[in-house]
Amino acid sequence: MTVPKWWDKLDEYAAVRMEELGIPLERIGLSDHKHDIPWCAFNPFDKTGGGFGPGGRIELDSGVFNPDLKAPLGRKADAAWKKARLRTRMDSVIAHEYEEGSGYSHDEAVERAPDTELPIPAAARELARTIRDGDRKRKRSH
Questions:
Q1: Which one of 13, 32, 79, 123 has the fewest CB atoms closer than 10 angstroms to its CB?
Q2: pLDDT tens profile 46-72
Q3: CB count, 10 Å around CB of 115?
Q4: Which residues of 6-32 are buried (b: 16+ CB within 10 A; e: fewer)?
Q5: In the chain, domain spans
């Protein structure tokens, strides 16, 4: 499978943005052997928003572009994601993956992302907070 023509620009932007937020260079990017990508900060094939791997390495993926990306967080979180600007989504996902890649479980990363030590903008903190609150609400209702 070949990567899309625009992938290199998104990959560069994701790497630069992570570096701007203080992600150590050794934690930026993953390999994707399934698609013959030795390293990428932006994976055009995955669709979850982002991910992390060995050594706490993180990447963004094409899910950040999907305004209808659904997680079981409820209408308010879905609406906030849909309304958010791309950079806000990216920064929120970077914060979440940074926390998860730092050794926290997914649920703990959802809790920690709004208060991450990373210098993400207020809008990204608010999006992460809305996602966290939706996750808490979902857990209480089960």
A1: 79
A2: 999 999 999 999 999 999 999 888 666
A3: 12
A4: ebeebbebbbebbeebebeeebbbbbb
A5: 7-141
